[in-house]
Amino acid sequence: MSTPSAILAVILGIVFLGVGIAKLTRQQGIVDNFERWGYSDALLIATGAVEVLAAAMLLVGVVLQSLAITGGLLIVFVLLGALMTHQRANDRIVLWIPPVVLLALDVALLVSLLPEG
Questions:
Q1: Residue of 38, 69, 74, 79 with fewest CB within 10 Å of its CB?
Q2: pLDDT band at residue 115, thresholds of 50, 70 and 90?
Q3: Residue 30's Cα: distance from chain center in Å?
Q4: Which residue in 4, 1, 3 sits closest to 105, CA to CA?
Q5: What mean pLDDT do residues 41-61 have?
Q6: CB count in 10 Å sphere of residue 15
Q7: Residue whose C-alpha is closest to residue 51's, from 82, 91, 89
Q8: Over 80: is that where the pLDDT of 77 sits?
Q9: What is the DSSP string of the chain?
Q10: pTM (2 decimals)?
């Protein structure tokens, strides 16, 4: 893994470790949003668990690239779900910015990990 790819993987890993733990520990603002969107507590916990798993895969993926690819793909699905949620809820555009930026960074990471040839 190149140095820029490793930096991206670590940044994304840290971000998703933080947001995943916030969900798993049921931080009030996150719980309020999930309730506002009509999502269950089980989905909150499942999303947090997937985010923590993906974060771990990205961080370990600095050494084992196949794990970074898998973690990055998990994050794509989480972020697409976030964007669909914001669209369905007619959320303000400012709430779309974090998932759009994180998705762009994640796609950049995944593209950087494509085999050359």
A1: 38
A2: confident
A3: 15
A4: 4
A5: 97
A6: 18
A7: 82
A8: yes
A9: --HHHHHHHHHHHHHHHHHHHHHHTT-HHHHHHHHHTT--HHHHHHHHHHHHHHHHHHHHTTTSHHHHHHHHHHHHHHHHHHHHHHHHTT--GGGGHHHHHHHHHHHHHHHHTSPP-
A10: 0.92
Q: Are 83 and 103 a contacting pair, CB within 8 Å?
A: yes
Task: Give residue 81's Cα distance to chain centre.
Answer: 10
Residue 112 banded pLDDT, cuts 50, 70, 90: very high
**Region of residue 7 (left: phi > 0; alpha: psi -120 to 50; beta: else):** alpha
The amino acid at 5: S
Q: Dihedral of CA 77/114/19/48: which sign? A: positive
CA distance 15 to 65: 19
90 sits in the region (left: phi over 0; alpha: psi -120 to 50; else beta) called left
